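Reopening this one. Same input as before:
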Amino acid sequence: MKKHYSRSVSFLVFAVVVCISVVLDRTTKTLAETHLAGGVTQPFIPGFIDFQLVYNRGAAWGLFEGGRTFFLIIAAFTIVAMFLYIAVNTRHSALEIIALGLVAGGAIGNGVDRAISGEVVDFIHTLFINFPLFNIADSSITCGVILFIIVLLFGMKNPESTLRVESPTKVESPTKVESPAKVESPEKVESTAKVESTAKVESTADDVAQSVAESQPETTDALEASSPSSAPEEPYSEDNRAV
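Same output, byte for byte:
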């Protein structure tokens, strides 16, 4: 995940990387002058790298030899430009700050040599390729430049991931999506349908029975009204018997 730093954190990380680079460079140069003096060669990785002490008054391959003042001006300009670059931009990627710190640390390391004695201590010798001797400061500058080019080419300054001193802007939570309606199992649907059908039939039967019960008194009254009235019975008497 890509991290980005605010301006204050960027200066802090930059200073830490510069200090580490300078300390490693000065320590290894002191060890080289102590243990490799007198033309001593110390194998490090057989057939790949060994250590030899060499003093260089110029740049790689002896270029610009004697250009002490020129190199000091270049180193000072580089460090100031990096400080301004960090100060102008509000946020920086982690790789970007590390790259700038490596370049600045290497420039300071070799600048100290040129300011003190006018020559740079080199001691790392590659055996697998014909390449000039170099030191930790040179390695820091080279790695920093390569890393910075990678940052520029692949656009590492992505504002999505941040590590800031200030509290990050709160991001509102997305609208909650309502859960879809639960689909009941076929057995449960069938059972529910049966229960509803049975209840509906029973309700219909009750309605019919109630309707019949209500209509019975009306039917009885209608029948009684429509039937002819019976003749009144004559009283029994002797005359009726004779007839």
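So the earlier flakiness isn't reproducible anymore. For the record, The longest helix spans residues 186-226.
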